[in-house]
């Protein structure tokens, strides 16, 4: 086989225009999926309630079900499409629509957690407030797959449902609402940052696919029905500017995410001198991070076994004891939340001690 034949075969495998729908069909799908009406808002509220309950009771099935019916992905893909074809009007409408949906989601989630009798921070909540590089990659590849599916001749609903589950747009917003409801603004901000990471990198991945398909730019910038040479040149310049801005903005937004991921990898690689020997039986590093997100006043956390000798039975009893240190005294409800969180990760937890350690002056 000649090199030219091999090259043509490889290009054929990665030909994104094979099976592509007409440009008008792609645009129609994008616009329809991003449109907000009464049914759309009701569907969004229902999905948020299901997701909030799922996070509240630590139910993965409920969270997945909520993501399947969540309509947020439509607006995100519309933003990517608008940037690819330089449709400023659609970009503005899609961005405003996404902001409205985000407000509805956070309000619904906050209201639920305010009235919910279950106020403890579950593992599901905490897992959606820590953005890592792996979340970033999933969002990017998910956006890539979502745009690819939306551009096919066949209806893309099955593929988009899978993308919606993989990219997890709703759970971080639920965690944001939870943080606001319990007045833990650090936790809420962490959840919203993970949501932003997902939105931006879904848009980034989708924009790459749509750009590679050479979708026609909207060159009639003033909307008068006539494309002048100046408008054509301006549309091309604007296209390059928007694409460059998306790349730079995505990279800047990812800096905290990359920094945190590097810290996690470094801890794993250096703990006990070797990767294969580093096994944290009680998830100390992860619990410490989660506790400090919940309550910044916590300064330290440790856990281990304590042996006590029982003279009557002549036996040694082993207990699993955790110690939480804080700069200020924690309230009774805060201590209960912390005990619940530790108990989620540590089996057969016997005791949790709380210590107030004042900072040295």
Chain-wise SSE layout:
Blueprint: H1 3-13, H2 23-34, H3 38-56, H4 60-69, H5 72-85, H6 88-115, H7 123-127, H8 133-150, H9 157-167, H10 170-181, H11 185-212, H12 229-270, H13 284-294, E1 298-310, E2 315-326, H14 332-345, E3 351-356
Parallel strand pairs: 2-3
Antiparallel strand pairs: 1-2
Explain what the structure shows:
It is elongated and about 95 Å long. The model is unreliable at 272-279 (pLDDT under 50). It is mostly helical and 361 residues long. It has a three-stranded mixed β-sheet with strand order 1-2-3. The protein has 14 helices and three strands.
What does this entry show, briefly?
The chain has 2 domains: 18-265, Up-down Bundle (Glycerol uptake facilitator protein), CATH 1.20.1080; 284-356, GMP Synthetase, Chain A, domain 3 (2-Layer Sandwich). The chain is built from 14 helices and 3 strands.
């Amino acid at each position: 086989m000649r090199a030219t034949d091999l090259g043509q075969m490889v290009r054929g495998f990665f030909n994104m225009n094979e099976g592509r729908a007409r440009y008008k069909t792609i645009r129609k799908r994008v616009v329809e999926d991003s449109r907000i009406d009464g049914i759309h808002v009701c569907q969004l509220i229902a999905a948020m309630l299901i997701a909030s309950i799922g996070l509240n009771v630590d139910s993965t099935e409920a969270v997945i079900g909520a993501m399947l019916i969540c309509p947020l992905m439509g607006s995100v893909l519309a933003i990517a499409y608008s940037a690819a074809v330089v449709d400023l009007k659609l970009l503005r409408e899609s961005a405003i629509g996404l902001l409205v949906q985000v407000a509805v989601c956070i309000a619904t989630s906050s209201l639920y957690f305010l009235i919910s009798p279950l106020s403890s921070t579950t593992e599901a909540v905490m897992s959606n407030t820590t953005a890592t590089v792996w979340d970033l990659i999933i969002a990017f590849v998910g956006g890539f797959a979502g745009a690819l599916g939306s551009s096919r001749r066949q209806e893309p609903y099955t593929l988009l449902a899978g993308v919606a589950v993989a990219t997890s747009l709703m759970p971080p917003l639920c965690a944001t609402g939870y943080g606001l409801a319990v007045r833990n603004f650090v936790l809420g901000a962490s959840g919203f940052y993970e949501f932003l990471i997902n939105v931006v990198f879904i848009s980034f991945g989708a924009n790459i696919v749509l750009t590679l398909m050479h979708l026609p730019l909207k060159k009639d910038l003033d909307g008068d029905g006539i494309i002048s040479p100046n408008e054509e040149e301006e549309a091309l310049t604007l296209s390059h500017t928007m694409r460059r801005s998306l790349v730079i903005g995505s990279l800047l937004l990812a800096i905290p995410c990359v920094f945190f991921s590097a810290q996690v990898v470094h801890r794993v690689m250096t703990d006990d001198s070797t990767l294969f020997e580093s096994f944290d039986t009680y998830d100390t590093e992860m619990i410490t991070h989660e506790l400090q997100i919940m309550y910044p006043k916590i300064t330290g956390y440790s856990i281990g076994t304590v042996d006590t000798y029982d003279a009557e039975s002549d036996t040694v009893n082993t207990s699993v004891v955790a110690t939480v240190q804080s700069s200020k005294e924690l309230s009774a409800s805060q201590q209960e939340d912390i005990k619940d969180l530790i108990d989620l990760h540590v089996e057969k937890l016997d005791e949790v001690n709380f210590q107030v350690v004042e900072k040295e002056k």
